[in-house]
Amino acid sequence: QVQLVESGGGLVQPGGSLRLSCVASRSILSVDVMGWYRQAPGKLREFVARMTSGGIPTYADSVKGRFTISRDNDKNTVYLQMSSLKPEDTAVYYCNAVLFRPPSGYWGQGTQVTVSS
Question: What is the model's pLDDT at position 99?
Fold first, then answer.
């Protein structure tokens, strides 16, 4: 099992930056994929970014070049650095952990990001 706790959300103006953090209850090197998803009001949850245990990142086209996923193995923490934020980035951001054996997935409680002037 993996417990995930997100933090770092808040209100930011368009063009601003925020860094989200996700602390895992176990070594993230033992987690096959760590990722970030988001859900805006009235919309389905969507993929934002992920990183494999080998350190390979993948991004949604909508955030490519603006968001960066990274990790600190010693702190069991995954980060999402968000820059050049747009109002359409407003959503609840969720941390996700995926294990391949046995196949299982885990979610954090979410953190609200609001981009508005």
Answer: 94
